[in-house]
Amino acid sequence: MSGSALTRADFLRGISGGAFASLSSALGAQTAARPNILAIVTDDQGYADLSAYRHAAPDVRTPNMDRIAAGGVLFTRGYVTAPVCTPSRTGWNTGCYQQRWDPEMAWRPGLPPNVKTLAEYLKSAGYATGKVGKNDYGRGQRSQAAREYPLNHGYDEFLGFSSNHHDYFLLSAEIEKQAPDRGGRHAEALLPLFENRGYRSFQGGYSTEIFTDWAIRFLEEHRRQPFLLHVSYNSIHHLVHEVPRKYLEKFRVKPIPN
Prior knowledge:
The protein is α/β, with parallel strands linked by helices. It is built from eight helices and six strands.
């Protein structure tokens, strides 16, 4: 793939061909001393929602994820530190049980200043660090000054949102003005995206594809140096029926009114 543009198809083939190492090698960026790290997280995907597992639901098909499992490791006894997205993300990014500072193990553990994140460790080791997609630790939402904001805990670049969920299509400054509870909980899903220390408004597009394209751009720009890229999709979190019509037609699924 070196010397040519990387497409979404190349991106998926790369990660499915041998998990993270294959893609890094294909990009010409892997080194023995400091391997590249690409972490891809899906949001609230169920244990039966991956067809690589024998116990998967009969109507579930995840061929790209299945290829990653076939070329790497499929965990049957791997556990997160909480059953919901926000605290489990905190545990994963800190390597600590979040109840160490959040005794109630609630939905809003946050990131304390005295607990280093994976991105902070790797940035101090000379890695380029990028995050795209959902950023939700339960506190500091919608604030670029908060400890929880990616650029304040080790990431060099960020495109995404800081809240529990976000609309997949409505990502513009104009839609924010139309939110019925502007500034409230429901309006969190109707906002332009954060981009580094500013904002980026999208008049069209689908967040899953927007995040994938950003990830490809980051990989291309940092292919010659060690990197950590955290791709954190908001799919399949609510609203789960929101996909472009081309996907509905491909899989013969009837649209559901929003």
